Amino acid sequence: MGFVYNVRDRVTKPAPQETGVGQGCSLSPHLFVFFIHDSADYVKKETDSPGEEEVTIPALKVADDVVVCSLTIPSLQKGIHQIAKFCKN
Predict the structure, then answer these.
(1) Same domain flag for 42 and 83
(2) Which residue range forms the structural domain that includes residue 6?
């Protein structure tokens, strides 16, 4: 699988795509959901998430964006590190 660019009515030579899925691929949203589904639970373990009692909001996930939520800056940094660690595993 590869890609080309169309610039000023000229098409570049095909370049290989070695990782990921192509832009607009119908599998993209499904693969993202499988990948990111458990990320909020992973972050929740390490952050002071906003909320009350048993209901907290460690992260917000919309489309292909993730927002880490925290009450303190050090806790926010921990959450960011947890997301990075989650992505590497």
Answers:
(1) yes
(2) 1-36
32 and 8 share one domain: yes
CB within 8 Å of 60: residues ≥ 6 apart: 66, 67, 69
Q: Is the pTM of this model over 0.85?
A: no
CA atoms lying within 13 Å on the CB side of residue 42? 18
Q: What is the DSSP letter of 14?
A: P
42-63 pLDDT per residue, tens:
776 666 766 666 666 777 777 6
Instruction: Name the one residue in this structure whose structure tokens are 């660019």.
Output: 5
47 and 82 Cβ atoms separated by less than 8 Å:
yes
**What are the structure tokens assigned to 33, written together?**
């959901």
